[in-house]
Amino acid sequence: MRKNMTELERVIISEIPEEEAGYIRDCVKKEGGLKLVSADTREKLKKELQISAENGLLITGKREVLEAAAQLNMAAVCYENTERRAEGGCLDPYPPAVMVVEGFREVDARFLKRAFQRHHHIPWKILETRRCIVRELGMNDLDALFELYSYSGMTDYMEGLYPYEQERAYQKAYIDHMYGFYGYGMWLVFEKSSGKLIGRAGVERREETCGLELGYAIAPPFQRQGYATEVCSAILNYVKTELEFSEISCLISEHNKVSVHLAEKLGFSYQTYLMMEGRKMLKYYRRI
Questions:
Q1: CA 41 to CA 48: how far, in whole Å?
Q2: Does the chain have fewer CB atoms within 10 Å around its N or its C terminus?
Q3: pTM for this structure?
Q4: pLDDT (tens digit, 9 = 90+) per residue, 80-91?
Q5: In the chain, what are the domains?
Q6: What is d(CA 221, CA 229) in angstroms, rounded to the nearest whole number?
Q7: How far is CA 219 from CA 104, 139, 281, 283, in A?
């Protein structure tokens, strides 16, 4: 019986320089359960594309191979570097690939899995804390999101949701353009023990803060239990180690004393205030 389509099983490489292929082999070898296949002939490549369309990830620098994978709705990463570009490589026009990579020295199995997930619209798991899981929002989360925002007091200091169909369109665009382009955004916070959606937290770029901004909101029934501190501390570490940012801000309504206390607890310091849509917002800042 086949595994669920949400699991990457096979990585297929085709016409990749041996040095780069070696890096891919090394990272696949470290990950149990993944199979690496070198499709070094046209016949083998054609067979592998058919076998692996649902549960495979193709890595190649050939546009015609990427196009063949696209016809099968197969996840693909395009290998591209300056030498290939000078030879008329596949970057211009943009190839039918979920990601373009100039080298695989720093690539790990998580990167390969995330490329596969992005292609198949599977939300990324961002991080895990002692009590919570933080992951991207998927379209199947919309009902839970509306339930979250229905708690009394949930939108006292932040905007509510649009009407259902408008919110659906907004979130689809957000997934495609924010998650898809930046690789980060506002995420969902789930309680491990119950699996329940208890809040949102994440980071976004905002013009007003001239950089990265931390945002967080925990549903009232789950407040004052340390969830926000636990999750935001983990996100700050993720921002430093994974996203490689060294500074971050947060904007807080002047009346939101609880969030001010949390920001200070997380190591933020008051910097200035901004007037946004008639509201006074306090800007807190810290280096990570």
A1: 11
A2: N
A3: 0.88
A4: 865 555 555 555
A5: 10-119 (3.40.50.10090), 125-287 (3.40.630.30)
A6: 16
A7: 41, 20, 21, 23
